[in-house]
Design brief:
Blueprint: E1 4-7, E2 10-13, H1 14-28, H2 33-40, H3 44-51, H4 60-69, H5 74-78
Antiparallel strand pairs: 1-2
Length: 92
């Protein structure tokens, strides 16, 4: 079972939410995905799996690496409407 959250009536997996957040931040910071990979230490293949939805789960370690790549705290990275939902289904 994947973790899902509902955004505007559309269910998103946690991976899709993270990918959306990455896209927004790349635009806001005028940063390339390649530069983010370099700064975060995330391998290109792993980043492609996240961005293309082939990754089923994103680990906390990966999210921390992403936040550091964007020069922000984990809290700042997660402080986005894409992560705010009471419809988040957590696998037990």
């Amino acid at each position: 079972m994947e973790s899902n959250l509902l955004i505007g009536g559309i269910s998103l997996t946690v991976n899709e939410a993270v990918a959306k957040r990455i896209c927004r931040l790349l635009c806001e910071k005028d940063m390339s995905q390649y530069r983010l990979e370099q700064k975060s230490g995330i391998q290109h293949g792993s980043m492609q799996c996240i961005m293309n939805g082939r990754n089923k789960t994103v680990t906390l370690s990966t999210v921390i690496m992403l936040a550091r790549g964007f020069d922000m705290s984990l809290t700042e990275f997660l402080d986005d409407e894409v992560f705010v939902s009471e419809d988040l289904e957590v696998e037990r």
